[in-house]
Design a protein that fits this description.
By secondary structure, the protein is of the alpha+beta class. The protein has 5 helices and 4 strands; from the N terminus they run E-E-E-H-H-H-E-H-H. Strand 2 and strand 3 form a beta hairpin. The longest helix has 18 residues. The two termini are about 20 Å apart.
């Protein structure tokens, strides 16, 4: 998993704006602070759909950039955003879990029109992103 640094800024009571210094043209907006991780993940997914792979800069390197320093001096914050590249190749795995939990997963997946595998993958992706940004709230 790679981390791209977002510059998060807000003018007055407006939505939060996000830009990614390493990814020209990649931006997002979020109505509130808790919506930032999802908006950032969506922006990264969209950007990488038709752009080449870009190695993220280190936090120290970004802090030394004049445009980033200027944004931070104006009140913006730097936010590391985890990015899990899309890889459509599937791999079969064997996992073990409580039978009651598995029943609950299967019932919920069915209610949402999903299968067990897609539900578990979606839940894992959300948890990975949430866990990496939880300390930033």
């Amino acid at each position: 998993m790679r981390y791209y640094i977002a510059i998060v800024h807000q003018d007055g009571d407006s939505a939060f704006g996000l830009t990614f210094p390493d990814l020209p043209g990649c931006f997002a907006a979020a109505d509130d602070w808790n919506s930032i991780p999802a908006a950032a993940a969506d922006a990264l997914d969209l950007w990488f759909e038709d752009q080449p792979d870009v190695e993220p800069s280190s936090l120290d390197a970004l802090r030394k950039r004049p445009d980033v320093a200027k944004a931070v001096a104006a009140g913006a914050v730097l936010l590391p955003v985890p990015y899990i590249p899309a890889d459509t190749a599937v791999q079969r795995v064997n996992i073990t879990m409580e039978r009651g939990l598995l029943r609950a997963i299967d019932e919920t997946a069915k209610e949402r029109g999903m299968n067990r595998s897609s539900f578990l993958a979606s839940a894992a992706r959300r948890e990975l992103v949430r866990a990496d940004t939880a300390g930033l709230r």
